[in-house]
Amino acid sequence: MAWEDTSLIVIVKIAGSVVSNRSVSMTRVRHAPPSNNASEHSKPAANCYLGIARFQNNGTIYSRDCSIVKMREYKIVVLGSGGVGKSALTVQFVQGIFVEKYDPTIEDSYRKQVEVDGQQCMLEILDTAGTEQFTAMRDLYMKNGQGFVLVYSITAQSTFNDLQDLREQILRVKDTDDVPMVLVGNKCDLEEERVVGKEQGSNLSRQFSCAFMETSAKAKINVNDA
């Protein structure tokens, strides 16, 4: 499957797995800023429980050791300047609705069950603040994140320009150049207001060595369709 043909969350590659968009359930939660203990979040969470399975067949009771693996969790952080549509994209992906009103986000966390490499897992998607007064919290988000969605608006050049610094901050915090991320040019339904060309996005994605696509939360373009 080519990068260009995949949807917003599908192409976020984490721990060698590609997330599919076949959802099972979804919830939304709000919580306090994440812990600054990055070591707890460096790998997908999975716990294994050991026990004895007992079953009966024709009156005979059998038992054997078994293990139950807790569903893996993947933490994805959505980053970008204020007003680019981060919340609208996230809510459209998780809940299938378009939020028309702009309400500056402090931090919203969404959970959605999806399938990864044939196994059910839980996506935790952190929708972060894009306004200046909350930028100090970004280091914590970046430490805990396993994959990143960098969003700009095709109608605002400044939001595109801001992504270079955002990516550099991610690489600095993670202390590696190998960080799963995708570049997203949102609001592609507003073609008459476009100021950032699609070729600019493609060029930047090559510079970042990451996937790129243009999306529209309002028109449901490249949000859920693979």
Automatic annotation (TrEMBL):
Its EC number is 3.6.5.2. Keywords: GTP-binding, Hydrolase, Lipoprotein, Methylation, Nucleotide-binding. It is found in: Endomembrane system. It comes from the Eukaryota. CDD domains: Rap1. PANTHER family: RAS, DI-RAS, AND RHEB FAMILY MEMBERS OF SMALL GTPASE SUPERFAMILY. This is small monomeric GTPase.
